[in-house]
Amino acid sequence: MKKCKFGLGACAMSWLICGVNYVWADNGAVPPPMAPKSSASPSDMAPAAAALGMGIKRLFPEGSGGKHLFPEHVPKGEEDVKHVFPQGWPISLRGWVSGGYVYNGSTPSSHFNGPYNEVDRNQPQLNQLYFIAEKTLKDTKSIDLGGRVDVLFGNDFFLAQSNGLERTESGAPKWNQQLHGFALPQMYAEIGNKTVSVKLGHFYTIIGYEGVPAAGNFFYSKSYSYQFAGPFTHWGGLATANISPQLSVRAGVVNGWDSLDRQNDNPAFLGGVKYATTDQFFTGSLAVITGQEPTIIPGVFGNRTRYSAIVTLRPLEKLEFTLHQHFSSQANGNVNGTAASWYGVDQYLNYTLHKTVKAGFRFEWFRDADGTRVSGSEFRGNPNRGAFAGDFFSVTGGVNYTPHPNITFRPEVRYDWFSGEGRPFNGNNNQVMVGINAYVQF
Question: What Cα–Cα distance (Å) separates residue 12 from each residue in 75, 271, 418, 440?
């Protein structure tokens, strides 16, 4: 196996938190922000609260000092969740199991929901059996050592794989089959503290809004921007600096998109910045990755650049609106040697109805200008393969119901339609789906 080559860069960004800033009491009153327990950091609380639909404490809870503006893509366990293993151990152990079913109104004989590569079949699915072992950095000014290993088994393995690990250098499958598989989406060591740290190894991307873990997303189904627009994981190094309670930056060098080892290893720049007002009314972030990536022409690499801009507004305690705009360009992306591009906009609106119920709405427009991105995978056995040059649209409405902090139900209704070349949804240019999912944290 070839050694991966890396270069230098500057970067910063984190996915934004869905939800609201407070939890409703049983009588509908909103209590004041709560400081986390001594065993939980701000990054532990915010993503998990979003996923559970329990409302989100402020990004900088009282007593936190505003040290951690960049919560991770993977929830670290909200304080109300009852874990099987004590979280006070030097190495914490936790996880979740997620499964569901999607009914496709077109009742396709292939059982595939169009060109999807995630939540892709209208059959019952074990999506994720997910385990995490982690030693977090201490919130001190001294230097500490930490690390993390994530293990995923289930239908969602497909987009958590890396070339050179679960796949060959060319991207062909190794040990995983079509339906369920095994992936190691994160394996990294970390040095530093909550103010400045460096992560080395394998970790989730900082590009985009949605992520792999079930417990970090409001909706069961995935956006086109998540499935087809950007990377999922990286191998390399990433530094984080929390300059102030409002401003954080990240800087990193990685071996491109989703690759430990590939046919042509090249360093890629990964970077961005994030700013949040003190009252959390406004949060804005920008992230970018640029480097040499494989093109549609076999054996040819060219520069691929993608940026992701996210703005979140919280005009009310129970209401949150997020806009995600992205653009990507690939040199030599077309068979004639010209550049290919893909871009779009996602919009999310979340409202807390009760401390156990949150309603959500998502609208997406995704343009695959040259028909080089959206396609079902031949390795999944999906017959809905591109090219589909044109505009994809989707509207999704759903609810997160959390009767217990460990359990979340995610029913949703989704409508997709396409305007362009081809019929991507099993010979149709639209489809309606009704999904139900539940995940249980442990």
Answer: 19, 5, 34, 31
